[in-house]
Automatic annotation (TrEMBL):
GO terms for molecular function: guanine deaminase activity; zinc ion binding. This is Guanine deaminase. The keyword Zinc applies. Residues 4-54 form the XdhC- CoxI domain. GO terms for biological process: guanine catabolic process. SUPFAM superfamilies: Composite domain of metallo-dependent hydrolases, Metallo-dependent hydrolases, NAD(P)-binding Rossmann-fold domains. It comes from Paracoccus haematequi. Its cofactor is Zn(2+). The lineage of its organism: Bacteria, Pseudomonadati, Pseudomonadota, Alphaproteobacteria, Rhodobacterales.
Length: 670
């Protein structure tokens, strides 16, 4: 199939930049506007399919020469979706025992070139017909000779050989997947073995098959492992960027300082441009300084272009309970949240919701989120897989909770630790994915589980930690009744070693002076969730008081208690809450907060929330005239700050003209 995308649209055109369609040998999905333009694109796409071409470009004037009268000009990029036979990645399966033979059989119809490798001819002789096999006394030599991007699965009859092969594979550093059959105990032994050799064990997948089944039947293990392999290999394939530069033009705005601290806080370029190559920003400057002949341009004038929005607290499993009528926090959790999260243990549910969730985020201009998953490791696996496939920066973790909820959404202290440990090994630092150790909150975790969370923090100090603090007065009373020795709510987290500048404390509304002082001393972050706090009647966040005390705050949607995925609507409600507090949220401070400010709260300001050269091109394009009411109001706007305030109060997903993740347009024009 060939994807046809509008890269640039100038003048009068049937579709804007970002529109796309998919062309197969006998089918077409989507549209780039119909007419002769679309006919020419379909014809060229089918020529590519017949010739095996990978990509092409078309620059089409929409004038009389092609029988159209629009008068504009459209630049198209055509690229093949899905691998050609020569693109199939190699999968080397070591060990022709029961599981190895079952895995080779499961991989046979899939778009990979799998080879079953063993030193025992009697085992290879039992392989099903049609399966590629190789008999060798030196299996480690096959790993050394493997193509970059290959996958290696280790299932031999000998633990020592497993360790040798896994160490050889990890030392390559350029394989798409390295997996080894075994248990958490085997992984721990292997970790000690390779660390002594100076090899990083983190990329190893062990146990294989997502670690989500306790079924020991070879066919079941093979099915899970094949699914895991295809997910990884497909994600790696989708991350191959078109090796071309593109220039995104518009009114560019970004921040280099906090508007609370200095008047010199932002950069604004009236006719600006962002030069992007392979998903990264090369330069930001005046358009005339960067424009050149032959460069692909996407013209977003007169819209504003900012770094993509960052949401520092959101619940991925609650996408289908947003806007559920209810009482306050604890009732809402029991009535809606926990029953909904039970569904994430159902086959196929988490991947479907992950795609919908990420589409909603990017549709609202958000390019990075800090997400709570359900207790089921499948939910985190699905979210990370979907985000990785899009090259989208995500911070997430499966919740740890072992009491005060239905059995279907509970783990145990040990299982919560083991599942989190496996997910950290699999996903933390994979591409743009980061793991957050996630004890949901003190009410749903026993002291034993909180201790396990603290152990994870000590073992993985570079992971984020997320939980909830002092959202609701009833919640605080219940929490302190469960931990009678605690000085206050924060002390529970402090006692178990969770406080640091990587800790995100959702809500943080009803804080005592000691808690505020300790948050400032340890660098622990508060997270303001305005739409949720109003919807659930939780209270009014004291941003000014916390800032004066030295506490850094993020701002977030908190969907599904929050009522909108839009960071613009989050600013709208945040402005009103701070008004009730006698505090102000100026337009520049607001947009700093949802870009660079939230990146600072995460300690990721060098990677997200910025337009600095070398950073990934995560961008949001904002239309301040997106609705008739906004357009009417904009007629009286005289300054950039006034325009930003209109977006802050009246904006939503309709104001997001386009969202880019690593330079790729994510929102299709309509």
């Amino acid at each position: 199939m060939i994807r046809v995308r509008v890269i640039s649209a100038r003048g009068s055109t049937p579709r804007d930049a970002g529109a796309e369609m998919f062309v197969g040998p006998a089918s077409v999905e989507g549209t780039i506007g119909g007419g002769q333009l679309e006919y020419m694109a379909i014809d060229r796409a089918r020529q590519m399919l017949a010739a095996g071409e990978a990509e092409a470009g078309m620059d089409i004037p929409l004038g009389p020469e092609i029988g159209q009268c629009c008068g504009g000009r459209v630049v198209l990029h055509l690229d093949r979706q899905g691998p050609t036979p020569e693109d199939h990645p190699d999968v080397l399966v070591f060990g022709a025992g029961h599981v190895g033979r079952a895995l080779a059989l499961a991989l046979h119809p899939l778009p990979v070139d799998a080879t079953l490798i063993d030193s025992r001819p009697e085992e290879l002789a039992q392989t099903a017909p049609g399966i590629s096999t190789k008999l060798t006394p030196l299996p480690e030599a096959e790993i050394r000779a493997a193509r970059p991007g290959s996958a290696v699965v280790i299932l031999t009859h000998d633990h020592a050989l497993d360790f040798l092969l896994a160490a050889e594979a990890l030392s390559r550093g350029n394989l798409s997947y390295v997996g080894m059959i075994g248990s958490a105990t085997k992984r721990a032994q292997f970790t000690r073995f390779v660390r002594a050799k100076g090899i990083d064990p983190a990329p190893l997948i062990c146990p294989i098959g997502a670690g989500f089944t306790h079924d020991k039947r070879p066919a079941v293990i093979a099915a899970f492992t094949a699914a895991e392999l295809i997910t990884r290999l497909t994600a790696a394939s989708s991350l191959k960027k078109i090796p071309m530069q593109q220039l995104i033009r518009g009114r560019v705005l970004d921040f280099h300082a906090d508007p609370h601290d200095t008047a010199d806080n932002h950069r604004y370029i009236q006719d600006g441009a962002i030069l992007i190559e392979d998903g990264k920003i090369l330069a930001v400057d005046d358009y005339t300084a960067l424009a050149r002949e032959g460069l692909v341009e996407i013209d977003h004038r007169p819209h504003l272009i900012l770094p993509g929005f960052i949401d520092t607290h959101i619940h991925f499993p609650q996408v289908q309970v947003i806007a559920s009528w209810g009482a306050q926090l604890l009732d809402w959790l029991n009535t809606y949240t926990f029953p909904e999260e039970e569904r994430f243990n159902q086959q196929g549910h988490a991947p479907a919701m992950a795609d919908a969730f990420l589409n909603l985020l990017t549709g609202h201009g958000t390019t990075t989120a800090v997400a709570f998953c359900s207790v089921h490791p499948e939910s985190a696996e699905a979210l990370f897989s979907a985000a990785h496939a899009r090259n989208m920066a995500m911070v997430a973790g499966k919740v740890m909770m072992d009491r005060n909820a239905p059995d279907a959404v509970l783990d145990t202290p040990q299982r919560g630790y083991d599942d989190s440990k496996a997910l950290i090994a699999r996903w933390h630092g994979t591409g743009r994915q980061r793991y957050a150790i996630t004890p949901r909150f003190a009410i749903t975790s026993t002291p034993e589980q909180m201790a396990m969370a603290g152990q994870l923090v000590r073992e993985h100090p570079d992971c984020h930690v997320q939980t909830h603090l002092s959202e609701n007065l009833e919640e605080i009373d219940f929490t302190l009744s469960l931990y009678p020795q605690a000085r206050d709510y924060l002390d529970i987290y402090e006692t178990h070693g969770l406080l640091s500048d990587r800790l995100l404390l959702g809500h943080s509304i009803h804080l005592r002076p000691r808690e505020i002082a300790r948050m400032a001393e340890t660098g622990s972050r508060a997270v303001f969730c305005p739409t949720s706090n109003l919807f659930l009647g939780s209270g009014l966040f004291d941003e000014g008081g916390l800032r004066a005390a030295g506490v850094v705050s993020g701002i977030a949607t908190d969907v599904g208690g929050g009522t909108s995925y839009s960071m613009l609507q989050t600013l709208n409600e945040g402005y009103k809450i701070l008004q009730l507090r006698g505090q102000k949220l100026t337009p520049l401070s607001a947009f700093h907060w949802i870009t660079r400010g939230n990146a600072l709260a995460l300690g990721m300001e060098d990677r997200i929330g910025t337009l600095a050269p070398g950073s990934m091109a995560d961008l949001v394009v904002l239309d301040s005239r997106a609705t008739p009411a906004m357009a009417l109001r904009m007629e009286r706007a005289e300054t950039l700050e006034q325009e930003l305030f209109i977006l802050q109060i009246m904006g939503d997903d309709r104001s997001v003209a386009q969202t880019y993740v690593a330079g790729q347009a994510m929102k299709t024009a309509v």
